[in-house]
Amino acid sequence: MALSQLLSSSSRSGNRLKSLSSAISLRHPISTDTTPITVETSVPFTSHQCEVPSRTVQTNAKELLTFFRDMALMRRMEIAADSLYKAKLIRGFCHLYDGQEAVAVGMEAAITKKDSIITAYRDHCTFIARGGTLLEVFAELMGRQAGCSRGKGGSMHFYKKDSNFYGGHGIVGAQVPLGCGLAFAQKYCKDEAVTFALYGDGAANQGQLFEALNISALWDLPAILVCENNHYGMGTAEWRAAKSPAYYKRGDYVPGLKVDGMDVLAVKQACTFAKEHALKNGPIILEMDTYRYHGHSMSDPGSTYRTRDEITGVRQERDPVERIRKLILSHDLATEKELKDTEKEVRKEVDDAIAQAKENPVPDSSELFTNVYAKGLGVESFGADRKEVRATLP
Amino acid sequence: MLAISRQRILGQCFQKIRPAVSELRSYSSAAKQITVREALNSSLDEEMSADPKVFLMGEEVGEYQGAYKITKGLLEKYGPERVLDTPITEAGFTGIGVGAAYYGLKPVVEFMTFNFSMQAIDHIINSAAKSNYMSAGQISVPIVFRGPNGAAAGVGAQHSQCYAAWYASCPGLKVLSPYNSEDARGLLKAAIRDPDPVVFLENELLYGESFPVSDEVLDSSFSLPIGKAKIEREGNDVTITAFSKMVGYALKAAEILEKDGINAEVINLRSIRPLDRSTINASVRKTNRLITVEEGFPQHGVGAEICSSVVEESFAYLDAPVERIAGADVPMPYAANLERMAVPQVEDIVRAAKRACYRSVPLAATA
Fold it and tell me: Per-residue pLDDT averaged across A184-204, rounded?
């Protein structure tokens, strides 16, 4: 009965989509159809010290098309950032997330803005998922006023406190105790919300992670530690860095789940499960099996420690955007052309945001001395030559 | 908006130095006496009572009543949700404290001594101090890191370092160091109420010392301004700056110098960052001579910064080179006689003051 519903609704929504897209020719074909569609995740979940969530996931056309659009936008944004970096409009460090989009998008779909997220330096897409704008991203990357940190943070320091996104951290592993602290505060305030603290396979060996996990387990904090395992900590493959690369098991007494991080529906399912678990039972680890197409950062070609065949192999077999495209097409939720139009639209959005960001001014010189303190007490601060440049901190 | 002044300085920068207003208030002579320990304990109690977002975290702060009994009674009064005993994992629990501050709580994290803060220093500097700046004001960090700092007695090299200079060099932190009970109450309350990360450097040997306090100091609304030094003793001949335990030594040195006709002005810094440059410079412009005193290592220390500040702002007023009394440039030894040589003594301050006043015999060659 579900199947016949599926067939009839998909063709109905297909017709609806066609009429929608012809009526509003510039609009993307986001279907409003919320008829449930049942899908299986790519692989079953594997668990450590807890039960396994079902690999059967409920979704609908609207959700899938939103996933496609969001991930296509993130993909396009990161590729555009690559070009900007090569054009020297972005300086310093730039760590790109293309390939890992399903983690950011799937996680966001499982939670609310009351839940908190904290991550490391590969943060552009997480910021977008939390409600940040493309202009804020590109302006920050180029060091302009309209950036989310007004140009003072850079690629690694994006924040959006009003959506409970706490950055954006450059020191490997530091974000994990910080995330457990956010979870502590949520419990202290009785907010009935959880914190997702993301870290990589490189950071998974950090001592402070285990210190924070111990405290989180002792104090039953609603902390979800998410290992985005892209299998390389900078240039070091996981098997060269970790005696046990089964990161979901590394919590020992803390339960863990291994998830296909390239399958946005699996990510959403796992995060829903984890949130429920954390609110009742304390910390849990999610290991997202994912992959980054770029090197560690823009200064790393990413091909000295892995083969080009491996990279193209993942792109062909497991790409998160392609996976959703195939799902949408096989369920007849949109046509190929409509999906291509969506991609054209997001490309235009990205290009427009870049153009706007390029016009945006750099911060005023006085911004050198702002935000050193929340309450500056009128003390003096100094430039390089203190007899030439001094400021009073407000 | 901010005023950044670009000034070509010809001679001295007169406009920036305001005359130091005497901070000496006369309290009623029938003053109560409380120990520094009682002062800190009562401050924590009052601030926790006033603001439910304030909580304590650290090793042995709860059931053990505090390694040095500073947090005595607070677990019983506020419960285990607000007074948290942590495992011996400074990096982990400091990070958790900073994360809680990101969310808007007001943690007071205790380091059993600041020597152990080195395990967590990345969180103090990179996670706490810099966040408000990097986020352009979105993420402020209203946290206090407190605990005993500097030398105790016979605890050896790994347990005796003074961290004032290291923390005070970092923009984004505020660094306070109380001397007496009034300082302890006023500065700790100010630190807890402050929206920025504050490093609060206490001294183990001062915990048991009693000082007179007025009714004003005992009031729960009392606090002292951050960034203002106090002139503990007015004088005209030489300025002595000090903080924490060394203030007591400087006052004793001043009494000895008085007998030799040298009238010393003793400044209790109270705040290492922000440093009260205007009070220090105003004092040096009056006395024309400066001795800086600190317990910590001499190189790149607090005294070096004070000396630089005075040379920059008040060079023409100096009648003698600035003298610097600091801990010896060695790891702290254990043997009592060597330990005594490794930390400033009252006679060191007296000798330096006399040198600055050109009253001493030229230095004999030393080993």
Answer: 98
